[in-house]
């Protein structure tokens, strides 16, 4: 029997192969950056998560958000504490619980760690404006679809937010969506993946939004 030629591979297979290569590049840059900073990629990920949230986080929240086990987070956090990059304080919302926050040195280390994936930002400069927006929209849809299957932790993204009103009636990347929380209009390039104002919409609303969004 003749073997399958590369041209006979299905498009979903090629998309997967492309994404795997991006994943390999991300992992290799993370290891490189981490080695230079005397950290592990997991420690860098925790620092950048704390930096991006700008509020103290409990260990359980970090584990859920980064899709890591509690044991892995606990071990990484102990090392970060020993290095003086994070500190535990009483959680402002629950005095019995502890929350983690960055120290001043931790903030500097987190800013450096957040630059490890900058090679992707540089690579995306090779795309035209329309291609970039289209790629971002596609990625948002892909992440939402993976979230629905439990392949990524729940994201604080517009597509699942009770405040999101997708553009209706207008087609194309310039279609204007609306956020009822921040009271702003924005096109696909403004869709959020991790937003502090996010509030989970019920599933019936999410299904309706997805239908409208797909038509815009
Ligand atoms: S609150 Fe944030 S996530 Fe929700 S619709 Fe507005 S911008 Fe999007």
Helix-strand makeup class: mainly alpha
The profile of the biggest β sheet is: 3 strands, antiparallel
**Total of DSSP H or I helical runs spanning 4+ residues:** 8
CATH topology grouping of the largest domain: Arc Repressor Mutant, subunit A
User: What is the level-2 CATH architecture name of the largest domain?
Assistant: Orthogonal Bundle
GO molecular function, one term: DNA binding
Protein name: MarR family transcriptional regulator
Organism: Pandoraea terrae
Domain HTH marR-type: 12-144
Structure commentary:
Keywords: DNA-binding, Transcription, Transcription regulation. GO terms for molecular function: DNA binding; DNA-binding transcription factor activity. It comes from Pandoraea terrae. By secondary structure, the chain is mostly helical. It has two domains: 16-118, Orthogonal Bundle (Arc Repressor Mutant, subunit A), CATH 1.10.10.10; 127-215, no CATH class. Helix content is 51%, strand content 11%. It has eight helices and five strands. The chain has helices spanning 11-37, 41-53, 59-66, 70-82, 104-113, 118-124, 129-148, 203-215, and strands spanning 86-91, 94-102, 164-165, 177-179, 184-186. β1 (86-91) and β2 form a beta hairpin. α3 packs across α4. The termini are far apart. 19% of the residues are buried. The model has no long low-confidence stretch (mean pLDDT 93). Residues 158, 161, 163-164, 179, 181-182, 192, 195, 197-198 line the site of iron/sulfur cluster.
